[in-house]
Specification:
Organism: Legionella clemsonensis
Strand content: 25-35%
Protein name: AMP-binding enzyme
Number of domains: 1
Low-confidence stretches: none
Strand order of the largest sheet: 1-2-3
Distance between the termini: 35 Å
Mean pLDDT: 81
Number of strands: 5
Radius of gyration: 15 Å
Largest sheet: 3 strands, antiparallel
Order of helices and strands: HEEEEE
Amino acid sequence: MLTKIQNRFPETKIHKIYSLAEVSGRFCIMPSHLISIEEAVGMPMPGFSVEIRNEAGNICKHNEQSLICIRSK
């Protein structure tokens, strides 16, 4: 779908934004030059830090079941 949109509107910049209701809106944004990385949600926006942790509170490894932990700075 993304490729079709980019092909149809080549001059349009598309931004992928990740949001959670628990943080009252968006907290991660994908830079437009990296938008082709489908599984990524982007970088934390200014004022936020994001860590991926397990139920015990430890930083997770890749593909490990996890929680998204967001903190405002």
